Amino acid sequence: MIQLTDVSRIYPSGETEFYALNHVSLAVPDGELVVILGPSGSGKSTLLNMIGGIDQPDSGTVFVNEMDVARMNDRALTRYRRRHLGFVFQFNNLIPDLTVRENIEVTAHLSLHPAKTLALLERVGLKDKADKFPHQLSGGEQQRVSIARAIVKRPALLLCDEPTGALDFKSSLSVLQLLEEINQIDKTTVLVVTHNSAIAAMADRVIRMRSGEITEITQNTIKAKAEEVSW
Amino acid sequence: MALARRIPRQILQHKGRFLSLVFLIALGSMTLTMLNLVVDNLQGNFDWLSDEGRVDDIRVWTVAEPANLDSLGQLLHADIDGRTAVDATWQEDITLRIFEENQQVDRPVILEGHALKRDQEILLNPAFASEHNLAIGEQIVLAGRTFWISGYFSLPDYIYPTQFESDLLADPKNFGIAVVTKRAIQLLAADAPVEDWTVDRSYGIRFHPGFAKSAPEGESESNSQPVYQDLKDRFKDRYGLVRWLERKDNVRINMVKGEISGQQAMSQSLPVAIFLINCVLLASILWRMIRLEFPLIGTLRALGLSRAEVLRHYLALPLTLAVIGSIIGTIGGMTTAQPLLVYYTVFFNLPLSIVRFDPMLILSGTLIPIGLLLLTASYVVLRAVRLPPNTLIRGFRRRPKAMFIEQLFHFHNLRFTTKFRARQMVRSSGKLFGALIGVSFAAMMMLTGFLVQDSYDIFLGEGLRNTFRYDKNYVFKAPQNTDRYGGEPYQMLAGRETGSGDALLVQGLVENSQYLQLIDDAGLAISLPAKSKTCVISRVLADKFDLDTGDTLSFIDDINDEIHYLRIGGIAEIYTLNTVYIPLAEFNRRFERPDDTYIGLYSDRELDIDSEVIAQTEDMSEMIASLESYTMLMRISLLSIGLFSSLMALLILYILFSLLIDENSRSIALLKIMGYEAREIRTLMLRIFDLPFLLGFLAGIPLLFEFYGSMMEQAYEEINMTMPLHLSLQNILSGFVILYLTYLLTRNLSGRKILRIAMSDVLKSMQE
User: Fold this and answer.
1) Helix, strand, or coil here: A207?
2) Beta-carbon separation of B2 and A85 below 8 A
3) CA–CA min distance B397, chain A (Å)
4) Which domains does chain A have, with CATH numbers?
5) Which value does ipTM take for this structure?
6) A54 to chain B nearest CA, in Å?
7) Is residue B424 within 8 Å of B685, Cβ to Cβ?
């Protein structure tokens, strides 16, 4: 369960202040696939970073599975990310001089019970690319490796910041299918930040943001399959 | 851990850059290890020789032979040994100073072969034996007497075996030392008048432990002085004191001590300079890498890697390079230390009985560079790692401060090329600083050879040839007062400066001396009128006690122990001895000697003087010739240092150029797309190092003077010598041309990398 209450994050902007998050409250039950929608600067990535413990609020509380993330010190936050979270970014940020397999192994050792690397690669359809370097893969393949890297630790929560932002339609679909599978088979809670409203169709819950505020939270009564998503 | 597999791949990817850095690290480590081991062993062997040979605390020369040395020794809590020395002519112009074998003080230490067992055996100093191919077991004939060489030796009060104390170099071609038994020396001394040899007898005194040892350097001598004074009075009153030489004033010991001090200074400063350059280069390389990997570091942190884990990962590469470089360097240092040590010990006639490679020194040769480089790397990596993950993920952004500096300069009025280069320079300030210190260091090394060459030219020219114009210098055993030999008379007296107790020599010269021309720093002759009450002092004395014209010099004469005051009328550019010159007549009046008395004669030819009355004969032309041949050898070794410095400059600049091109690959590709030719891009990009190169070279000149000056000061402090540092414009230009050619070569080599930058790759990367 993710529970944010009255969370604000303020950045100085010249002589004034800019509210990246303005008194945001939110609750997400375990096992959901949530899409956070909004234009650039709406605060969606900041919200994701708060939940992921890579940024902390100036006020309000952030609880994830009853852990008070907003009050954690740096060491506790590292431990929290290590044990409970997986992250996927718009740019895959794979290590260029490590192979696909090695890129996954970098995070595998952080977990006490990691998934088997090769099995995971098979699951993301890249078993035959295990010994390739990232520059030998397509953009979609690289993003799938970065998802594999994130889930090898078997996290309870997978946070994805614009995972399809740099991909073409076909590659985007394959990434979305993978995220759907992780959510449904592994029961991992998946939060996807995107400005692509078409992706909202596959979510359990859709959060719309503008200017640091949540403008709408809706629940999809009928969820589309990832493969049906189109734009 | 998977991350560790990056290290070899990263090294292979930029092998030129990293191999250059490893080479530079190895160089620093090698210099540190080699010089430290050499200094440690030189010092160890020097101390061992002093102990083993029971070096004297004082050596005295008397008019009458002291009676009953044993009881005198017991009274003084000291060992006293009398020693006869015969200056024998072995072959034409080759003098062998043969000493009586002593058992208690200044005893010969065997370096090879065995000690004397028979009266027909002789020990030789190794440099002399080597120069004349005299092997152990061979024979040597002196005055018809045959001696078998039983071994090679060193004498603790004659470590550096110069013929005269004023000699700057031991010249084994013309002079050597030997030891024979007491019985043999008596026979040789008996032959002396017939052979025209000179005989000398002196007494070595070594106090028992705890009884008035010579005070250590820099410490008060109050403990030893009363005992010394008492002893001196005793010798003066009873036996007539001719000369009193304390260990701290013995140039044949101090020459070696000075050289060890010089090496010590070198062993500290040279590696430090190389390490400093290494640290700057490593910081540049690492920062470039880290900046590019900001998003990667952020991602790793977001995925749960702790700061410590990321820090450890980014330290692994510098650690690998530092470990490889320093291990190679340490092994190189250990390998080169041995031959260098042998060279030094042969040169200084030091025994090499103990060769000990102190594990701590070896370890420090490896660990110091590793430690320094890790500290530098930690500083660089922490700059990134301390940032929060979300900041890192956004990638490196130039700080507003850097932008602000750029805005301080008004570039808009400049031509495009100048403006572009000026901006590049502001943005690459770290690399420019690296180039500046790298070139300064290379320039210092390169110009060292020229500096030594020019300084020696001045030293030999103004300091020796122009001043000491005689060919022969005869010193009599007793004062003379008749003009029967010809030549130019002079007087001489040993004394010591009142405050420090440092030895000096007072000389009385005739007016307008033909053979000793005193010249000031402007190159003008300094006159010494017969009735002048002022004195002229040597440059080395003036520098040592910070004396100038118009000051008053006070000293105590060694024979009467009276204090004298003399006003300084001039400073002569003499760099070798603490000398005070006064008119001959004034000398005899002041020291209560009969008129026209003299102790020595200068001459431009050989004089017909009975050898029995001569204490020593100095041949100036021989001394200058040996110095010239020595400087020629030195120039060859300095030339190799010059070549070495060029290689260093090449590597340093190569690393910096390659970093610059890497960092600007996007701009370079864009310029290519816009239609710039490679030559034009080279001019825009690579010529930003022109100014730091020039400034670095120019900065190297004063730094060299400062460094070499302080090194010389340490090396020559003990032996009353100074080196006039001089570097001619012609040699500065030569050094500049050599380094500039190296710079151009590196620039052109790096320019080829510009051609290899593919426009498409860069455009693709810009789209990401």
Assistant:
1) strand
2) no
3) 17
4) 30-55+74-228 (3.40.50.300)
5) 0.84
6) 6
7) yes
Task: Indicate the pairing of strand A33-37 with strand A189-194.
Answer: parallel
For an interface test with B, the pick among A51, A54, A133 (most B C-beta atoms closer than 10 Å) comes out as A54
Evaluate the CA torsion angle A111, A112, A118, A122 in order and state its sign.
negative
pLDDT at res. B740: 92
Q: Would you state the structure tokens that stand for residue B249, as one six-digit string?
A: 């004033």
Select, from the ranges A81-90, B391-400, B528-537, the one with the highest average predicted confidence (pLDDT). Answer: A81-90
- Tell whether B305 lies on the interface with A, counting CB pairs under 8 A: yes
CB B527 within 8 A of CB B536: no
Which residue(s) pair with B519 in the sheet?
Answer: B525
Cβ neighbours of residue B204 closer than 8 Å, sequence gap 6 or more: B56, B58, B59, B80, B81, B83, B102, B105, B106, B157
| Residues of chain B neighbouring A153 (CB-CB closer than 8 A) | 303-304
Give the lowest-confidence range in A26-30, A149-153, B32-36, B717-721. Answer: B717-721
User: Average pLDDT in the B300-309 region?
Assistant: 91
Which of A74, A78, A88 would you mutate first to test chain B, the one with the most B CBs within 10 A? A78
pLDDT of B223 > 70? The answer is no
Calpha distance B57→B52 (Å, rounded): 14
The predicted-structure confidence for B733-749, as pLDDT tens digits, reads as follows: 999 999 999 899 988 88
Residue B300 touches partner A, C-beta closer than 8 Å: yes
pLDDT, tens digit (0-9, with 9 covering 90-100), for B174-209: 899 999 999 999 999 998 878 778 888 999 999 988
Please name the member of B2, B302, B389 whose beta carbon is closest to the beta carbon of A105.
B2
CA B186 to chain centre: 41
Query: Do the Cβ atoms of B768 and A54 come within 8 Å?
Result: no
Q: Which chain B residues have a beta carbon less than 8 Å from that of A109?
A: 1-2
| Residue B698: partners with Cβ closer than 8 Å, 6 or more residues away | none
Question: Given a cut of 50, is residue B360 above it in pLDDT?
Answer: yes
Mean pLDDT computed over B389-406: 74
DSSP assignment string, B616-645: EEEEHHHHHHHHHHHHHHHHHHHHHHHHHH
Spatial contact of A160 and A167, defined as CB atoms under 8 Å apart: no
| pLDDT at B768 exceeding the cut of 50 | no
A91 contacts B768? CB cut-off 8 A: yes
Q: Model confidence over B398-443: pLDDT tens digits?
A: 665 556 666 666 666 777 777 778 877 877 887 888 888 888 988 8
pLDDT at B554: 92
Instruction: Closest CB to B6: pick one of A55, A83, A95.
Output: A95
